[in-house]
Q: What sequence folds into this?
């Protein structure tokens, strides 16, 4: 247990009082007068303690005899219960007591992702990545807990991202993501190292889709830490490698992938999003993952990158030259991994520079005809032959 820093110990005259401020004041939490015991316990809770440690500290400080300890314990427990109920103290073991059942362990791009919660909250696609035998180091293990409760408290912090789809708040010990348009997921909490994630849902009957996308936010945060980056693109398997068509929504990524399928018999790997990263052999790979927009097309396998086609709409078909810096920036602009601060942004541009230096990138202006597919295919074949 640890105190909530939205409350401050102050004195009104000679009387100690816990005064509320910040988010707790906005949540209409009440201030509270304390006695000497309350002040002692509040000062103890500057660090995380178990209830037993609180009992023992009170017994020692107030010199409570063995015979009087049962009554003292009941009084202290009642006081602690009231502090927790009022949001003044955070029970750091509260969520552990819920004992969520593990649903699946997954291996996605070498990251071990463990999902905990009710089975009906998880999309079936996660089972394609199930690997109960896979283990990795703690820093590459992400535990995701999906709770059918509201957060115990609403922490205040620094608002760092805000748009119509998501707001990101940085607190002293986590990132909190809030989704204004969602009906079923309340909040998503991510530890700074990405290893612990909590998803809070309002109901279990209709939350599966929103939980699926919430987990994507958490995974992409963890992936970026390990130099894995998601690029908005459709991928096809060509020459046993992943060829990416990247563009904004509505430009024609899926149309070109469909052309290649019909004309050249290639199959799609992922219909919307590809996770790129460097393998142990130094090559860039497109790693399988379940998130694929609304296409429903994904693959659990990994493929070496063939190259990236940056699509632009134009009546004519032509490839224009880009300087190395422009290629890197164009790739960065298609990456949707978190860029919540300058450090995150720098990691993205550095990776984009690596990709553009080591792999072909075609800046392709085109229409959606069969000739458009034939033209870029000839360019790709001549470049990578």
A:
């Amino acid at each position: 247990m640890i105190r909530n820093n939205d409350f401050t110990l102050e004195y009104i005259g000679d009387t100690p009082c816990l005064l509320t401020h910040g988010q707790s004041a906005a949540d209409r939490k009440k201030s509270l007068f304390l006695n000497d015991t309350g002040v002692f316990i509040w000062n103890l809770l500057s660090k995380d303690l178990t209830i037993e440690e609180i009992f023992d500290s009170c017994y020692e400080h107030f010199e409570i005899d063995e015979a009087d300890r049962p009554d003292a314990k009941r009084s202290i427990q009642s006081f602690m219960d009231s502090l927790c109920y009022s949001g003044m103290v955070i029970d750091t073991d509260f969520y552990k007591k819920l004992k969520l059942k593990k649903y699946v362990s997954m291996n996605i791009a070498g990251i071990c992702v463990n999902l905990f919660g009710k089975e009906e909250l998880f999309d079936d696609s996660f089972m394609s990545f199930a690997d109960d035998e896979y283990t990795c180091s703690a820093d590459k293990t992400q535990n995701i807990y999906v709770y059918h409760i509201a957060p115990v408290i609403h922490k205040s912090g620094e608002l760092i991202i805000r748009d119509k789809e998501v707001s990101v708040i940085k607190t002293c010990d986590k990132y909190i993501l809030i989704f204004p348009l969602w009906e079923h997921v309340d909040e998503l909490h991510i530890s700074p190292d990405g290893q612990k994630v909590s998803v809070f849902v309002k109901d279990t009957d209709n939350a599966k889709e929103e939980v699926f996308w919430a987990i994507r936010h958490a995974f992409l945060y963890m992936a970026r830490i390990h130099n894995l980056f998601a690029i908005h693109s459709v991928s096809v398997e060509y020459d046993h490698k992943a060829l990416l068509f990247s563009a904004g929504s509505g430009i024609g990524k899926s149309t070109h992938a469909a052309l290649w399928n019909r004309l050249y018999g290639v199959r799609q790997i992922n219909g919307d999003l590809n996770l790129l990263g460097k393998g142990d052999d130094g090559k860039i790979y497109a790693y399988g993952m379940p998130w694929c927009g609304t296409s429903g097309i994904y693959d659990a396998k990994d493929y070496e990158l063939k190259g990236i086609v940056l699509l632009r709409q134009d009546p004519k078909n032509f490839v224009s030259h880009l300087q190395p810096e422009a290629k890197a920036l164009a790739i960065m602009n298609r990456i949707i991994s978190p860029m919540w601060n300058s450090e995150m942004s720098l990691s993205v541009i550095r990776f984009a520079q690596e990709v553009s230096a080591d792999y072909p990138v075609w800046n392709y202006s085109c229409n959606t005809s069969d000739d458009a597919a034939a033209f870029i295919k000839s360019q790709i074949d001549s470049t990578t032959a």
Notes: The mean pLDDT is 91. The chain has three domains: 2-92, 96-225, 228-384. The first strand starts at residue 2 and ends at 3. The domain at 228-384 is CATH 3.90.228.20 (Phosphoenolpyruvate Carboxykinase; domain 3).
